[in-house]
TrEMBL record:
This is DUF4133 domain-containing protein. Keywords: Membrane, Transmembrane, Transmembrane helix. Residues 80-98 have a biased composition (Basic and acidic residues). The chain crosses the membrane at residues 12-31, 43-60. It comes from Aquimarina addita. Residues 71-98 are annotated as: Disordered.
């Protein structure tokens, strides 16, 4: 069974790259179909659409792993239920004062 998983494990990077290329094509088609008529802007090439995807990921996306918990969740992970409740009370009181 482990041998079969190792074969399939090599497919994931290729699948990831294929998804990026497909998304770039979709972005280009949507941009060129909608925005030039709507906003009177130029059409974009395939590589420009890929650059646009990368830029939006940098500006708006998280650069960490998608399944990684946010900071507050990591902080709560090591706390007892009493500590969590105390932290919530302090946070609520802090926000009420402002």
């Amino acid at each position: 069974m482990k041998h079969d998983f190792k074969k399939k494990k090599g497919i994931f990077p290729l699948l990831f790259i294929a998804i990026i290329f497909a998304l770039s094509g979709i972005v280009m088609l949507l941009w060129n179909a909608i925005l030039p008529d709507l906003l009177s802007i130029k059409t974009i090439t395939y590589w420009q659409s890929m650059g646009l995807l990368v830029l939006t990921r940098i500006l708006f996306g998280r650069l960490e792993k998608p399944n990684r918990p946010k900071f507050a969740n990591r902080k709560f992970r090591g706390m007892t239920p009493e500590e969590k409740e105390e932290f919530r009370d302090k946070w609520k009181n802090k926000n009420d004062k402002q």
